Amino acid sequence: MPGGLTVSRVRSAHRVVAPEPVGWPRWFALSAAAGVAAGIVWWLAAPGGAFYGQGKDYTIWVARDLVLAGVDVLAGLAGAALLIRAGTRHTAGATARLLAVLAGGLLGSVLAWRMGVFAGDLFQTPPDNMPSPSMVFSLRSATVLLLWPLATSAAVFMHTFLSYAFVPQPRPSR
Length: 174
Hints:
Keywords: Membrane, Transmembrane, Transmembrane helix. This is DUF2567 domain-containing protein. This protein has helices at about 5-15, 25-45, 60-85, 90-125, 145-165. By secondary structure, it is mainly α. Helix 2 packs antiparallel against helix 3 (about 60-85), helix 3 (about 60-85) packs antiparallel against helix 4 (about 90-125) and helix 4 (about 90-125) packs antiparallel against helix 5 (about 145-165).
């Protein structure tokens, strides 16, 4: 063949590459299931939860919401760390994993909220003079639920930005 190309080189250059397995349902389920554990952690760590504080005291309601916010941010950062470890190169599988973790994180955040409230309802008895039993352990700021996917997307964005910002420049050939 002209130019020194052989048939074997031409065939190896057109090798079919198998597509990367997506596996997004597993990533979605893992993120959503982490919400159950996050809800238990929230109920155990928050004021008015399992160990300290009275749920009827309105001065601890902000602190209780902030504990869920912290748990959601930590869970989002953990999900981002797993995504980064799995690889964030521009493929369909990486995009599907990212979207699955973001959607699972939103569902996980809602599950954390409901699991914490369920644990509060299950293990605490509200006083007789409370207008609503949910006041003993509940969430007052629903925007806290957006922090899990927001922390995940911010961490993945920063990793991607920094990895492109510090790519070594090719040296000019002499």
